[in-house]
Amino acid sequence: MVDAQTAWMATPTAAAGAAAAGISIRHLYKIFGPTPEKFLGPVRDGMSKQELRDVHGHVLGLRDINIDMPAGGIQVVMGLSGSGKSTLIRHINRLIDPTAGELLVQVKGQPVDVMKMNPRELLRFRRQQTAMVFQKFALFPHFTVLENAGYGLQVQGVARKQRRDNAMRWIERVGLKGYEDNYPNQLSGGMQQRVGLARALSNDAPVLLMDEAFSALDPLIRSDMQSVLLDLQQEIGKTIVFITHDLDEALRLGDRIAILRDGEVVQQGTGQQIVLKPADDYIASFVRDVNRGRVIRCRTLMLPGARVDGPDVDPGLVIEEAARLLSAESKEAANVVNSKGRHLGTISMGDIIGAIVPPNPEPVPQAGLVEAH
Fold it and tell me: For residue 318, which phi and psi values (nearest 5 degrees)?
């Protein structure tokens, strides 16, 4: 009898048409050094990162990470350099083994603990259930765009025509049709990253891991790639884990955001929750200069009440767009209406202006932004 841990391996083409997978991380610790298990207890009891490093010669990568990542959504993990975000994402496909903890991925409807996989199971999991997009593109210089995009399928042993057809489909979807016979050195940085994205999507893996995938790109190209990803996500509905150090990128892409500092989760939630209710001064320092009008949505500000003489807006619309609509129609208030046409409440221009300007504009001390090394 096949147990839940290995049932997903029963079908050779498990990745084909795979449903989105949710990810649950429980009490994850990572200590780098020659004898990490020796210091797991003291770290759990509160030993500081500095003491562990300076006195005992070990490095604390992650401390007690607990995150539930939404199936079919984009989970952003952000933080400054050294916060542990790249270490965390590499645990999901076990490029890094933990010192302790549990990492469950829903595979074909069953929770599978990645940490308990044997080498054969792990290899198959990496090939069929996850795909990764790197900051440095990681393209083969001697492969064409088409060959790079189909490489994951080649590793899986997929027939040449099938992998060519699949790779061409995604090359076209990321806007590179006509470049399939070019080599990486004939492409711009943004185009190369599109090839990396096409390669990841060609595998049809339910989990897409993106480690600072757009960080090396120029701002305009970076914004364009963010739009490409959001458009594709509407179609593919993958479980995406996206690593970034940029708050604007996190707020634009993330259905949920987890902010790390010194290997610990400082705050997690939706972009609205983090901007409106920062957990401490460190988070407040991040969000102080955020354009709140592009984060807060109408559902947050709407008040109960009868219909008003004004336009209808969706509850998910950001208030900056609602303000633009009110201004264009010279109205003072709008009706918040759901997709079925049900009236939910109203939102006024005055409330929007009040929300965009923070109630306490005093600057937050910057000390929290300095990383400990």
Answer: -70, 150
